[in-house]
Write a structure and sequence with these properties.
This protein is mainly α. The chain has one domain. Helices cover about 80% and strands about 0% of the residues. It starts with a helix and ends in a 5-residue tail after the last helix.
């Protein structure tokens, strides 16, 4: 029965994690304007995400090292730093948007202005990240992902921000490590949550933050995608587990797509006034 429980939890987590505030905003806006004419983008994006995640997971599982650590070592400190800065800043925007999304959901449920909920949300996310073991956190992610669809992604964004920084600088990292053993990891989580909370408390619209985070994520895609593709083809790191020919063909096609999207995203945002 344990495998069935794990499968169920994984399904809940996937549903809860996939329906974050970014998906809710982007899908509702695009659906209202274009109907089903752009539905083909979803499977195309899912396949690209599967390719990227498979390469990333294989790199980490084979080497036993963090991706940002490997990118810095393989491609140099400057490329690694560009990758880190782009990833961290976008993750921070995403974290801010998720916490704002939680606060908006609580406002709808209670009638209390969302800005009053933001500090409580920040504290709640921090407590879950700090105190709950990873398995219990996953259950919180999955179960609350259905009831409060953005909570799980806020947890993941907080962890992702700390993973990227500590991996790049070669510090100990991991949710399972207590603060005494991984002080920098937990410090970055606290700083990221505090920064996201203060940013939302300025009164900026969480939906607007979400829209801009999506655009900047698209613009920065090559900075994350290309380094992983390079490392995934390096036999010095992966040995016989480098990309297959089939994987490289698909990954190269998506690299072209990613670059086109990256180049077009910000000019389109300016030209359309962020879709307005």
């Amino acid at each position: 029965m344990r495998w069935l429980t794990a499968f169920t939890l994984g399904l809940l987590t996937a549903v809860g994690g996939f329906l974050d505030i970014g998906d809710l905003v982007a899908n509702s806006v695009i659906g209202s304007r274009f109907g089903m004419s752009l539905a083909w983008v979803v499977p195309v994006g899912v396949v690209g995400l599967m390719i990227f995640m498979e390469m990333s997971a294989r790199v980490v599982a084979t080497t036993g090292r963090g991706t940002f650590d490997l990118v810095r070592e393989r491609l140099g400190a400057r490329v690694g730093l560009a990758n880190l800065l782009a990833s961290y800043l976008i993750t921070l925007l995403t974290l801010s948007a998720q916490m704002g999304g939680i606060a908006l959901a609580l406002e709808l449920a209670s009638g209390i202005h969302y800005l009053l909920w933001v500090p409580l949300v920040g504290v709640l996310v921090w407590i879950v990240l700090w105190r709950l073991p990873f398995e219990k956190m996953e259950k919180t992610y999955g179960l609350l992902g259905l009831a409060l669809v953005v909570f799980g992604v806020a947890l993941e964004a907080g962890l992702a921000a700390s993973y990227s920084v500590t991996q790049y600088f070669g510090r100990r990292w991991g949710k399972s490590l207590p603060p005494v053993q991984a002080p920098y990891f937990h410090l970055v989580i606290m700083v990221s949550l505090l920064s996201g909370t203060l940013f939302i408390l300025t009164g900026v619209d969480p939906v607007t933050v979400t829209e801009y985070s999506l655009v900047f994520s698209a613009a920065a895609l090559p900075l994350t995608y290309l380094p992983i593709l390079v490392v995934a083809n390096d036999r010095a790191y992966l040995g016989e587990r480098v990309n297959s020919l089939f994987t490289n063909v698909l990954a190269s096609i998506y690299l072209v797509v990613v670059c086109v999207v990256s180049v077009a995203s910000i000019p389109l945002m300016v030209y359309t006034k962020a879709g307005q």
